[in-house]
Amino acid sequence: MGVLIAVEGLDGAGKRTLIERVVADLRGRGLRVATVAFPRYRVSVHADLAAEALRGAHGDLAGSVSAMALLFALDRADAQDELSKLLADNDVVLLDRYVASNAAYSAARLGQSADGEIVDWVGELEFGRFALPVPALQVLLDVPTELAAERARRRGELDAERALDAYERDGGLQHRTGAVYRELAERDWRGPWWTYRSDDGPAELAARIAEIVGR
Hints:
Elements: E1 3-8, H1 15-28, E2 33-37, H2 45-54, H3 65-78, H4 80-89, E3 92-96, H5 99-110, H6 117-129, E4 137-141, H7 145-158, H8 166-169, H9 171-187, E5 193-196, H10 202-213
Parallel strand pairs: 1-3, 1-4, 2-3, 4-5
Helix pairs in contact: 1-10, 2-3, 3-5, 3-6, 5-6, 5-9
């Protein structure tokens, strides 16, 4: 059975780029590696409904923190069989976002901290009721909010399919989400965390993951 590693961070933090480099390093070490990105847009109806709501569709759906959190959670619940198979067939499964993203954004929307009710609810819903696997390590890609926002803006200008949604356009929400993420990491919420900063390198993260695998 492989190990599950979740990479978390704000929109535009650079999660995809980091994961690509870590995957290359791990494969160079002879490890079997698979990746999954959440939300699974164009794969999961729940993820697509959430994306459409964040762009103004489906009435007042986006206004409900719990409803949006549930859609994102259902996306992951539907991926459970896929995750189980990937973990059985690989040494490492790297996730671009996982349960902590739901907890962080939901808490930030409500003005709550990492010890707020919504964080507990998300954890119990996804890890408890839906029985999703708990990561062996959660990595917080901690970059300045302004830098992440600028990257997300440029990305949206270059790719119409990645244009900014309501969450990404809300600078205050991004600041609050970053703060909740850091609190989750400090508390080792739902397992061990490691905060990845600008002076770290992909090779260092890959080495840490390889150590967890035992390679």
